[in-house]
Amino acid sequence: MRNLAATTFTLLLAACATRAPIADRADDPRLLADVRQAVAALGPGVRAAVWLGRPGETPQLAWNVETPLPCASAIKAAYLVELFADRASALDAPLPGAAATLADAQHPAVAHFTAAQRTTAAQALATASTRRIAEAMITGKGVDNVTYNIAANLVTAHLGGPVGLDAKLHARDPDWHGLHVRRYMLASRTMNGDNECSARSLAAVHAALAAHDLAGVAPAAIDAARAVLRIADAGDGRARFYKGGALDSDPVTRVDAGWREGPDGARVHVVMLAQDGVAPAGRGVAGEHLGDAARRIVDMLHAPRR
Q: Which of these, 31, 212, 260, 264, is most buried using a 10 Å CB contact count?
């Protein structure tokens, strides 16, 4: 009976943590129509989800925000939170286990890379600080694309592999339950499933950072994570924070996510686009089209509206 009671209590807690789904909506229906038109112009086979809103408030625009979509490297923003939460007092010390992982050709974090690629990554990351590995993982500054992704895999391995990291993200916040870590970066997208996010869950990550509202995470660690995500401002008086994602395998994927903040507060955006069934020879061009469309939609979302 005690086991039954405990199980019932656990299920009740889970039910309480479940958030009501968010239906498609827009404070400005014209804006939603413009977003839909921009996606429709990409042709058939394109899936999309879009979020715009202020942290802690009903979204100003929501379209397909509960639908899981491939997220490529955009999910690394959530990895950054968990890494800095775990290493808050040691951001400038080497990441434990990084050198050993890079030296182990059989480790699932690096087994799908060549020896030359692992050597290049080891030269850049084996003794690097946690903060530097995070910078490489998020921005790719000073490293090639493979090392940029291996940096994320070192973080994933440190946090328990895809299964362990997935559990940490889900324990962080009920709104993060739409984040799904199923593979290491650049590993097969089909063997264990792809990494996916809902637009709502990805927006929740950025909203928490924008609001400095992450339970159990030291304020200094939040500030450090924000600093990694901050990009050059556009001269409009608003700070910009960003983590996108791009893949030209099937499905071709582009994600633009982050927030802009100024005197009137922060507004979080997520634009997710995925195109299925593109022939290999056409995927690069398809990716360029999706990327251009994502940037146009972000500009629409943040443009002053009459």
A: 260
